[in-house]
Amino acid sequence: MKKIVAMISSGKLVIEVSQNSKFENLQSILTNHVQSYYLNKKVLSIEEDAVNYRFTLDLTQILSALVEHDDAPYTYTDEMIGEVREYDRSLRISVRSEWQLAHIERFWNTERSHYLQPYVTKKNALAFLLDRELSLKHYVNYKVVRKIRLHTDCVAFEDFFDTLFFPLADCHLVIVERSGKKTFQRDFDYHLIETKYARVYRYAYKIELTMAELSDYLKQLDQSNELGLDLFFIGHLAGTDVPLKFRIGNSRFITKYTMRGELALKDPAKKQWLSLYLYFTIKGLNLSFTFNAYQEDAYAYFRAHRHRWRAVAKQAAGRDIWIIGERSLRPKIMGSGSSNIYVNNIQKLKCTM
Questions:
Q1: Are 285 and 250 contacting, i.e. CB atoms less than 8 angstroms apart?
Q2: In the beta sheet, which residues pair with residue 257?
Q3: Phi/psi of residue 268, each to 5°?
Q4: How far does Cα 245 stand from its chain's mean position?
């Protein structure tokens, strides 16, 4: 079956479709079951077993009509608590055929005070929202991480993620300081792989991050306290102006055995070590780093003896030689769906013997 071609051009929604000639009086309607707008129909050509149509709709008129009736919001009553709540009811064209989409971009009125946000729903309907933003992960279908290799100087991870209806135009890896403004961005390798679903675009990726390339970014961060760094994919889709942003995550391996250790880099200028602990948040949905800066002599002692604490304790029986304290005001335990628990934020201090 041919795909239905849909685009926004010169302020009009244009849909071209081929339909079996047995069907008569074919119509297309944009509706939310309260308001309905019929599209203008034109026959482009007639073939032996099919008729080719073009449907058009003036979005300027639709936007004006929606703004005029926007004073009365849609409401429903929550029967559990008896509260009346508002909700958005989008205008939709529901079809079963696959779409071929182009220029599905936000449409503004002349004064640029109101806009229609076109999008494709998860159930394949072409829809419009009035003055409402889409979620940045609306067109993300699935993501997964199945391989991670962790070393002191680098970490590598790979797998795939899916986008819906639109292919990627570009995509970048971004590390974002949690509750801060400093970010790190870089390109990464990805390529399209085939799936059996026409509306799904699957991209396999491989990423390797080294402490050497992260060093300049880490040295800019606040080193007086532990920080959380979150990993995102950020990009754009071809055929729509809706940006793409979603977290890396959804582990499919036993993190307890694969993600042991940390990334570390010596900073001779400040006589300290920069440390990154990699972990998945609870349920394994999001991949993040915990960043700390440690004194050089204390951290060197820790690295030299971290596999023989019992022997150190035996030799120093009766003497206080080590203090473990929290860098922040409260301890934090990070985990994942595979019951892997990391205790972060630990400041290691060597005491005078």
A1: yes
A2: none
A3: -60, -30
A4: 4
